[in-house]
Amino acid sequence: AAARATPRIAMTAPTLQEIASCVSGYDPNALPVAQAQEFIARLVPRIEAVEMLALRSSLGRVLARDIVCAINVPANDNSAMDGYALRGSELRAAAATTLQAIGTGFAGQRFEGAVQPGQCVRIMTGAVMPAGLDTVVPQEFVTADGAGITIPANVVRAGDNRRLAGEDLAAGEVALAAGRIVSPADLGLLASLGQAEVPVRRRLRVAFFSTGDELRSIGEPLDAGCVYDSNRYTLWGMLQRLGVEVLDFGVVRDEPVALEAAFRAAARAADAVITSGGVSVGEADHTKQVMAKVGDVLFWRIAMRPGRPMAIGRIGGNNEGAHSSILFGLPGNPVAVMVTFYAFVRDALLTMSGATPKPLPMLRAASTAAIRKKPGRTEYQRGIVTRNSSGHWQVEITGSQGSGILRSMSQANGLVVLHHEQGDVAVGDLVDVLPFEGLI
Ligand code: AMP
Ligand code: MG
Asked: Quick one: average pLDDT of 102-119?
């Protein structure tokens, strides 16, 4: 039972109607992208379960708690250079300073001797500063003769080349906040704190399947009028990049009993269920009816292109305490699946995973051609971004933008986002581009 159930959707979770009433301008038949995003953000629960992982295994996972520094990093004031440690107050203002070197401080060893006025200590990078000394003069500035060294005027100021205890991380301060996705730099930061284990949220489980009688799986003969199911592959790839646990429920026949069984099994097994196909207006197949039967589901027409139809809601819950899953019923067209995933599902799954999604960085690029665009919907055109001869970003739309032309996604390296209110684009106009690199 522990394997499923979470995220626990509390009995007090708002109904879909309550959520809709909080989203200003909510219109399920012409829903702007921003309103759909807001609705989904209010709908999705966060998983609670926490597991402790060995440091390296936490890469890409979501921190479950703030990491508070138990120690100072570095633990001691230490030298940033190979050179000589001295008292800054003994440096002469406009003339060379001569000091007597009385020993050496090596990294990893503390120089224990007392340093008298007029004395200094040869010191290696990372070595703890000897007591009373606050400045390091790099060795290349110094002339050494016998036990004495001479430092020319004005090559170093008091306090230079000394790293302070706690200057990277101070004991008691939050090094990394809960909700953060652990990056390579974070692994190093945690290692510098000596943290062997990291508290992370358990991995989100996401089930998906394709619907449509015309779909065939790889390995099956391609009967007349049929196409191979590609959506399960793009979805699998996008979900892998997101770091969630992926459960493939295959292609489901357009048959009420089979569909209902698939929805219920997927909802039992996973926190979120993604389907493709069967959600557009006037669909002849049974997908929508079965979705409505197994859960509380809304059917939207979103003001966007591609990707207009979409189903959203909760499925699989009941009064006996079974926990429901979030349903994302994506359109069937292969490009629409990817675009709606990036526009809606990605952030929702990150939120469910316990992460705090950040707005994705966009490029501003000059369009190499005019683009026709009607205000009142968001368009996601597939583009190839390059640098022009003067070093500025430019973007060229890939050939046909049909929502079945998956090749356009494969060729593109970003999505040109033409915003809701935006109209036609002229040659040379700057447009927003969401680069694929780093998207997931
Ligand atoms: P639908 O939304 O079910 O009307 O599907 C729209 C279009 O997408 C139809 O041409 C379907 O054949 C196609 N399609 C639906 N699901 C898939 C899939 N899993 N792989 C490839 N094409 C699909
Ligand atoms: Mg269909």
From this structure: 95
